[in-house]
Amino acid sequence: INPTQVVADEVLRVIKTTGAAEVADFAGGRVQLLGVKIGKGAPLVNRRLGDLRSVQASSPFLIVGIARGEQLVVPTQDTVVNADDHLYVVTRQDVIPDILALMGRATAATRRVMVIGGGRIGFHVVRALEAEDVAVTVVERSRERCEMLTKELGRTRVLNGDGMDVRMLVEGGIADVDALATLTDDDPTNLLAALLGKRQGARKAVALFKRRDLISLVGFLGIDAAISPRLLTASVILKFVRGGRVVTVFELPESEAETLEVVVQEGAPAARHSLGSLGLPRDALVGAIVRGEQVLVPEADTTFEVGDHVILLALPRAIPAVERLFGL
Fold it and tell me: Which CATH number fits domain 3-14+109-231: 3.40.30.10, 3.30.465.10, 3.30.460.80, 3.40.50.720?
């Protein structure tokens, strides 16, 4: 496990998916979980989930979780989307722009990024962005570190200074960036720099927090996304603890819910049984089934086959039943 690379990869996914606060890859990137704060006037607001079949036919997706205040709800067909909901959606990667539009979130290419903090995580993020021809500016307090960044990075603009210095942010072009990522080793610096950046015009602000309790503040403060190295590393560890039958684990921020990618095993209760007859716990919901090259949004009569990759969300009390049903 390389924690630095794990965190850097998540930062990159969130930066590049402009309308989402959380992004997790499943099935080799063909399926993604998006965490999205519903936008004002979004087409989904006040819609019952069971009434979305016509929309799902053209842009397949499934809402597997809804964060309301401090509670995570596993929705049913009768659940109605509220204006302040934070939705967790499982969908195919190729229809993400359509899904974000339904949630009132615009999508745009990420061409200009500012990174506060040129440490190990910041360096990995900047190097990857530079390889994709993104124009990047890095603000780093250590002069010695700035010299290293200047040598190692070809086209990135490196500024020696404080990420909480408004004048430096303005001179660095904060008003023109598509995304700001605050990636220092200090939580208060990341929080304040993200707030300053948003006030100065950054379209999206992503902040790194070691303390999990700070994540709950970002929505109230206007920061677009928060990333927890501890949560991400714990998710990778859980994958190895559960063995090769669990391909991916992503623990949701602000809750103990997990999104899992599991492989249906021969002899498992789920094998060759339909979703409707399986008796899945109320606190778990299947979002997608990957079968060969197909990505299926499951219905009650969808049958699980041995070898299927199943992406599902489960609250902690439902996980033992999920493990039993899928032979984990």
Answer: 3.40.50.720
